Amino acid sequence: MRIAIIGTGGVGAHFGSCLIRGGEEVHLVTTPRHVEAIRGGGVVDLTDEGEARAHPASVTSDPGDIGPVDAVVVAVKLYQFEDATGRIGPLIGPGTVALTLQNGVTAPGMLGRRIGADHVLPGTANIVAWLEGPGRVRQTGGRPAVAIAARPLGSPRPDPRDRQAGGADPRAQALADAFARGGVSARLARDIDRALWEKFALICTMGGVNALAHATTGEVRSFPPTRRLMEQSLAEVRAVATARGVALTDEDCARVLAQLDAVQAGSTTSMQRDLEQGRPSEFDALNGALVALADESGVDVPLQRVICAVLGLHTHRGHV
Ligand SMILES: NC(=O)C1=CN([C@@H]2O[C@H](COP(=O)(O)OP(=O)(O)OC[C@H]3O[C@@H](n4cnc5c(N)ncnc54)[C@H](OP(=O)(O)O)[C@@H]3O)[C@@H](O)[C@H]2O)C=CC1
Ligand SMILES: CC(C)(CO)C(=O)C(=O)O
């Protein structure tokens, strides 16, 4: 498959390396500092298994150098999204699909407004990865996973109770197969909205409450007062999801809580790490976006407001 990846940070560089090693024709679109490093030595991918080097078919800052591809994977931060996708045009042909892997629920709609909903496959990434330097990525915590919408954003939503309705789009299947060949656990999601909101609940809670408490997930979950904040955060996200037509069930919420209980005690999130290291962070596009959606829907989310106020102050000050 001919695949372009926009952004070579934690997510883009690791998945890029996997897709290259799985045999796909991978083109990377990234910032000049990564272009230079990757042209010189490939993508250096550091995992618990050791170091691997992967050489893409091309690496550039200009999508015009690549032209139309079968699939685009958008792997930039939410605050870089509009800028990075503003130049996506040359990569999109009539049959191209573009996968969004951002946390939160806003990226698919933003991309759909730009290139047309029929081209957009919303997705989620379950991975712990970060940049160690230009072209150099560290991934840890076991085999990463992606969930890819079985059908593009513009498709009518099949009734989730009807197992026969609305088969998978062959392009979504081909992309999932490519990830799987690269060693990534890949599944097609018939109800991607539910998957996005579940991940949103996890990230607003783990990232938001951890950063508010300046603590790891292990500390937050084992101290009863902060554990109650975790539970309150999940309940707030659930209320907003329900108001917006995505009725997360008790089982969905129990699954998210079980994930929070299962991650390694020292775990943090990418947003939290960015905040703690004084880098721009996605809190405004995650907990902040949740508050905006809650306001639109008339839902009260007092804890999310506190998280946003405190993290806003940290951002203003430049560090946690
Ligand atoms: N990291 C993780 O473990 C996880 C992250 N996510 C989500 O995935 C998304 C990506 O996160 P992550 O990989 O951590 O982010 P990173 O900050 O590590 O990577 C983003 C990359 O995009 C590059 N970039 C910035 N602007 C552009 C542009 N205009 N065109 C092309 N490339 C550009 C950046 O370059 P430069 O380095 O020069 O700034 C950087 O290399 C986020 O929405 C995050 O929430 C989801 C699950 C886990
Ligand atoms: C919580 C986690 C690690 C799950 O993939 C994540 O999404 C992030 O750090 O941004």
Automatic annotation (TrEMBL):
Residues 3-145 form the Ketopantoate reductase N-terminal domain. It catalyses: (R)-pantoate + NADP(+) = 2-dehydropantoate + NADPH + H(+). Pathway: Cofactor biosynthesis; (R)-pantothenate biosynthesis; (R)-pantoate from 3-methyl-2-oxobutanoate: step 2/2. Residues 191-311 form the Ketopantoate reductase C-terminal domain. It comes from the Bacteria. Catalyzes the NADPH-dependent reduction of ketopantoate into pantoic acid. The keyword NADP applies. This is 2-dehydropantoate 2-reductase. NCBIfam families: apbA_panE (TIGR00745). Its EC number is 1.1.1.169.
